[in-house]
């Protein structure tokens, strides 16, 4: 453990700054070097339930960036019958100790404290994961999000789970962590607290005293096992904001009783419930929703309990975080998704470079990937989660090059930024009068306007780095070669394409035209989405909000399969409010004109020749993009590598451009949608992985 904020590489210690965020906080014996933390979350970087190198390096980077406290796991499960639904760490296995010790030692070198969140997931998981043991809960009430039907916890279950909490806590202490926190929102502990999930008539049900019995048995047993000098906290819901659950008054009383028990050293406050995706969004807001919606409530809990309070819920900017500390609402402020976007937030604040912090734009690509079975990735920081291969800080190249980047969308701007950080001379050529590419289309949906932060941050960085952007240059080979480059990066993106139809392609409108405002939605619209991402959904939302009678048609088993559950919510809400008809397992086959309207002929991959018709005023289609590759193809025979990329070298982080045409003057790569239709993260990852090697 670190007795204070001291560490071999710590830059913090006691600061003379008057910035509230940079003041130390004393938590019992532990001095946290500033007020910024990353709350517990499960990035799904584990291997076989262990926090191996990828997991360790992810947390180490935040420590390197100056954070005071990083919470691991979200949550580490204490029992084998708490199946890991989110790639959870296995705190019930002894093998976890050396892995966590290495992680903690790495973070301690930078003066960063490390804690872990422990839980039994209760009903918030599935029986067909892990060891296929029955899911249990205080009462046999199904949780819709995970669809398992739990059994009612028996006395022997309660006894063994308490013992599991104790042994897991002892492992965390043995690993040298600075503390633990118990998870109590949507999991087993608070499942006992809530009238919505506890219908028992024994000593664990009914009165608040009975409903708190299990959690107090856990905290008492753990405290006896780990002693008074090991930090123990709880991340707890203090208001379920639910007519079936407990109120804020009862939640604050639960907090008071936990404090009075002596079993916990801090409260990490949550508001809301998480049975459905829509409920989860209210707890963890995404873009288009209010920022820091529960901050004032957390401050009320702090005032009522007079006890250390932590909190995180879309506190994405430094100004809000500073306000939370300065006004006494929080003792430690969680900036969790913000640190996925930029793990060096505190270091930049300390250096007076607050304006250079890469912003979290609220896209929630990170959490959506986790909930859909992937790993957490930031939509516009491709180094997060790839610390072993991708740099957060770009190293200078051995020799300076002259680079030209064509296209000022996310891929082109990232390529220009990385190349300039490498020390190269960079010019960007953009065909239009504005940077942003397809991001400019996404932001035409007012709810997604924060996405422009992806572009704005890069433009500010390019200005700092002295990169020139030449607008209104529709570049051909001659325009590129005028710059005498020795490296050309083609980031020209893609253009909207239609699905292949039997007839009537000339009668359809693209989602791009709708989002750009080039074509107005008509009175009745059929939108066929054969892509499954935000593009079609955003167009559908704009059409629905414009008052059109809309039917959304998808050939998939469910709509928008490329988009996770958290981003599903606002679209589904808009569609429900506007009475949008959603039709799945259906494919647009053809379109024909019928008087002043159109007839869309629909078929199914499951029903052969069976077709149905819809008469509408407008048919809109979304089928991804076709690579805008003309310039690349023009430059390819003139380049030194003839466009060739050595993928094995690229993956191994070696120089990936072979020499195929030694007489040529420049190397050529293309990235992003100029290669094929993908997404923003893929475009930025392309740019970073190539340009950090060149």
Key terms:
five-stranded parallel beta sheet; alpha/beta; disordered N terminus; 694 residues; 23 helices
What does this structure look like?
This protein is α/β, with parallel strands linked by helices and 694 residues long. An 8-stranded parallel beta barrel has the order 3-4-5-8-9-10-11-12, surrounded by 6 helices. Strands 15-14-13-16-27 form a 5-stranded parallel sheet. A hairpin with a 2-residue loop joins strand 22 and strand 23 (597-603). Helix 3 packs parallel to helix 6. The longest helix has 20 residues, at 155-174.
Major sheet description: 8 strands, parallel, barrel
The main sheet orders its strands as: 3-4-5-8-9-10-11-12
| Binned strand content | 15-25%
Q: Which parts are unreliable, with pLDDT below 50 for 5 consecutive residues or more?
A: 2-7
Whole-angstrom Rg? 27 Å
Question: What is the helix fraction of residues, given as a range?
Answer: 25-40%
**Number of distinct beta strands:** 27
The helix count comes to 23
Quote the distance from N terminus to C terminus.
41 Å
Question: What global shape is seen?
Answer: globular
Mean pLDDT, all residues = 94
Structural class: alpha/beta
